[in-house]
Design brief:
five-stranded mixed sheet, globular
């Protein structure tokens, strides 16, 4: 199977959020991932009135929120048409980052190490939460948006798992993951604590090695991806078929 010939564009850019896009359109083993079913984004707390109209026009009625408790408390949202489901994956990047800054150890190598540790922990510490993504996708048929704070790491891994489960080619999975570097708007922070732009780009961006680390950890901990799907994410053949029927064409 070849990689999709065209990148998947942002379907409807939002004023109050970045990294928002439809994850559909990629070729699968038996067709393509349906458009208009699953979206990804950074956090949804700052949406404008026009943004809310856009989400309603797209039929989005559910959100899967991977943010930690403090993140949700700091930037809450509640919209009458949107049912939010908290699938909590507490962040480790910021605490590790601050600890290394305090010790004067934050350089490019340390930044990459922090990110790779985060992706390892998605598999070793949060697999049960990512299994709930598939529970939610199979529970209802309304369009859904998945997000965390930046929509790049926790969301990126969840989308990658969904794409792989649906039969999207690994190269296309990586392509969608790396689109974050094009569409995410890095926040303007008043204090970068003397950290170089190169290091900040690592922490605020995505790199192939990060996602590769997660899938390598799956192989090391669970044997292979299919075993991880069936035994850990509880995607039985019947549930996998239902997933394909709903989200692929």
């Amino acid at each position: 199977m070849s990689v999709s010939s065209l990148p998947i564009p942002v379907s409807c850019p939002l004023e109050g959020a970045s990294n928002f896009r439809d994850i559909g359109g990629y070729a699968t083993h038996s067709g393509s991932f349906r458009k208009g079913r699953v979206y990804r984004s950074d956090h949804l707390a700052d949406l404008s009135g026009q943004d809310l109209n856009t989400l309603q026009e797209l039929g989005i009625a559910r959100s899967l929120d991977f943010r930690g408790a403090h993140e949700r408390k700091r930037s809450p949202y509640q919209y009458s048409f949107l049912t939010s489901h908290a699938l909590t994956v507490e962040p480790t990047v910021l605490p590790d980052f601050l600890a290394m800054v305090a010790k004067g150890q934050m350089d490019m190598q340390a930044a990459r190490g922090t990110m790779n540790k985060t992706y390892t922990e998605f598999v070793t510490g949060h697999a049960a939460t990512f299994a709930r993504v598939f529970d939610q996708l199979l529970e209802a048929d309304t369009p859904v948006v998945m997000h965390c704070t930046a929509g790049k790491d926790r969301t990126g891994f969840a989308v990658a798992l969904l794409h792989r489960a649906a039969g999207v080619h690994p190269d296309d999975v990586m392509h969608d993951y790396l689109l974050t570097n094009q569409f995410f708007r890095r926040p303007d922070l008043p204090d970068n604590r003397g950290i170089s732009d190169e290091v900040l780009n690592v922490l605020w961006g995505v790199q192939p090695e990060f996602l590769e680390t997660a899938f390598k950890t799956i192989d090391e901990e669970h044997g292979d991806l299919e075993s991880f799907f069936q035994n850990t994410l509880k995607l039985s053949p019947a549930r996998r078929e239902a997933l394909l029927e709903r989200y692929t064409a």
